[in-house]
Amino acid sequence: AKAAGGNRFELADPEADARAITRHGLTTALPTALDRGEFFIEYQPLVHLGDGSVRGAEALVRWLHPQHGVLSPDRFIPLAEHTGLIVPLGRWVLEQSVRQAREWRDVNGGDALGPLRINVNLSPCQLTHPGLVQDTVEILERTGVAPDALCLEVTESALIGADDDLLKPLRRLAEMGVDIALDDFGTGYSNLANLRRLPVSVLKLDRSFTQSMQQFPADPVDLKIVEGIVSLAHSLDLAVTVEGVETGAQAEQLRILGCDTAQGWYYARPGPPERLHELALVDATG
Ligand code: C2E
Ligand code: CA
Ligand code: CA
Ligand code: CA
What we know:
Elements: H1 14-33, E1 39-48, E2 54-65, E3 69-71, H2 73-83, H3 86-107, E4 117-121, H4 124-127, H5 132-143, E5 150-155, H6 156-159, H7 164-176, E6 179-185, E7 202-205, H8 207-211, H9 220-235, E8 239-242, H10 248-256, E9 261-262, H11 273-284
Parallel strand pairs: 2-4, 4-5, 5-6, 6-7, 7-8, 8-9
Antiparallel strand pairs: 1-2, 1-9, 2-3
Helix pairs in contact: 1-2, 3-5
The site of one calcium ion has 4 residues, from strand 6.
């Protein structure tokens, strides 16, 4: 950031420059990264708070960049959304994850451990892409995975003020039996009454609520808020998942507050697919 003439930009920020260069480099490398097979997926278990059993996993994409090493999605998902790569990338993540769910099922010998469900994040760009429903149907058919083993996570902010056109594909998927989860719930400004209008069956309570359960006793106002959200969710027949659970104390508080499912480092960090199978197996055999 240097300007010819004037001294407005003289205070160059080397770190900002480095970031801009990296961003530029990433943007250039991104379109071909999918073809080069540089993306991979880690899976983080979703655990039932009542009995501690593993019920499924969330798929989280990573980019193994030849120069920069493993990049977290926060580094490249915004770029992928900006460049449009998110549509083929998102489709790839969906297909890989659903295949993985099929493999867990097969390795487990059918449903012996109960079906492991797979959660996949959807970007707002994928929601408005006309191929979403058909792609999803085809992937489920190709892999032989039942729609109710799949949960698509959409952020609360993507659905704020959503009109019927935007909701239509989600409704179709929900009618087929695919679960829709409202991700990062509680960070946006959505009207709680608005929830009735959305084809969602799961609320994923944002990590900030989990963080506020860190102190013991937790802030009484936070407790009331979570309690209120859980009771509203349950009265609307929605399940509540909490993310970012890092300690046993948080898990216990959230269990007492009535949350259904949890995810976080306390149980497991995101990891390779084999790891999930091990966790589920250990879980089932004691
Ligand atoms: P998210 O959907 O809210 O995913 C949860 C994030 O919290 C993940 O970060 C996960 O690794 C992290 N996390 C899990 N447990 C804990 C914990 O106990 N403590 C803390 N501090 N963090 C925890 P990650 O993997 O870096 O992903 C970041 C975001 O990138 C995701 O947030 C999601 O919005 C997006 N993302 C990831 N994969 C995909 C994808 O395939 N498609 C799209 N569109 N977005 C994706
Ligand atoms: Ca998510
Ligand atoms: Ca989330
Ligand atoms: Ca998030």
